[in-house]
Amino acid sequence: MADEKIGVGVGYGKVILFGEHFVVHGYDAIVASLPSLKTVVEIKEGPWNMDEKVVEAFKRVLLALGVEGKSFSVVVKETVPIGQNLGSSAALNVAFARAVNELLELRKSDDEINKAAWEGEVIFHGTPSGIDNSAATYGKPLVFKRLGPGKFDIKPFNVGKPLHLLVVSTGQNLKSTKETVAYVREKKEQYPAMTNRVFETYGFLFKEAIKAIEEGELPYIGYLMDVDHGLLSCFNLSTDKTELARLLLQEARALGSKITGGGAGGNLVSLFDSEEKAKAAAELLKAHGFKSFYSVLG
Ligand code: MEV
User: Fold this and answer.
1) How far does the centroid of ligand 1 lie from the alpha carbon of residue 22, in Å?
2) Which CATH class is domain 163-297?
3) Is the pTM here over 0.90, yes or no?
4) How far is the CA of 140 from the centre of ligand 1 (A)?
5) pLDDT tens-digit profile of 203-225?
6) SS3 39
7) CATH architecture of 7-156
8) Where are the domains of the chain?
């Protein structure tokens, strides 16, 4: 009964601490996968049972893994929240690639799984940098740089002092990541003199941010998050709910907060110097209708 064999795969969700959008254009970014956010799939050989777009993505994943002439039925056992800029499509592509790897005993390396998942991401996001699939694959904090289509440089980093993070959902999803990435590119091409300065400022900000994280300079990290948020806002990526959440987070003594992921809704990430403060902020936000979850890094 070879066809009844099951393959299981996991992919992780993520929060980008610094550098969404800038990363698409070759700048370094800082990302953390969140172990509490994961997608788990079980697959077996059989007719496709997912929607058309997902199957299209999975076919590209299979091609990259060197698998031909097979189809799979897929059961999603657990999922990263969808449409929230937390990397759900990347987590799904990685989970599928890992499940195929297990089922067909392909013995692919993490790098090969990552590259295959990126191929699937192209269907969802058009020109993905690869940051989401990399976080989904490796499941740890990374400095990520896009070197070219499907080519990445990935480095671990040290966290000097624990980063107490509250991830807040705006409850909005006004534009897809594909649309926000296209908008940033359009503005970059339309107004290069101005936007180049915004991008260069991010380049400087990244260097300050990685140093501050490694040295545990929490208040400065928070300030840099606020600045990064300002830079992202230059591309209309913030919304009324994002700004309301930021005001409440300030009231609750967050050190800083910013859009995380594509923006135009989705989630914010905010930094606190203790778990207690982060959890008190979660209560305040809840009283105003915002859902959030706490996670610690380092
Ligand atoms: C999406 O999680 C992050 C973006 O920078 C897009 C990408 O890197 O592919 C907005």
Assistant:
1) 8
2) alpha beta
3) yes
4) 17
5) 999 999 999 999 999 999 999 99
6) strand
7) 2-Layer Sandwich (3.30)
8) 7-156, 163-297
